[in-house]
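Lab notes, practical 5.
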Amino acid sequence: MINMMTGKWITSPGDVAQDAIEDGIIERNRLRDALDLGEVEFASLLSGELSLSPLLARKLALALGGTSRFWENLEKQYRKERNEHADSLFCAPVKVSRIPKVYKGLGCYAYS
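Output from the prediction step:
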């Protein structure tokens, strides 16, 4: 997503996980199992709705790389931006050719 007031891109841990799946770094089911999440929880993570716990941050670090601190900081920044600027976030309901990723969980096309 992008904050239309600041022009800043907002990326959730779920966006990064979705990109890893789409880029073939890890299979969707393998990541879901590594995170020990059910399908609904996993879909919520990918869409940015599920907040990361410290345990989930550690599991993401093991499954995708980085540190748990990286994942926790990404989560913190995402929640801050999302909560402070909810009315100025861009999420287009139709495909725009310059927007590369589709986040089905959001039900829209969004910047990654």
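Observations recorded by the TA: Strands lie at 2-3, 89-90, 101-103, 108-110. The longest strand covers residues 101-103.
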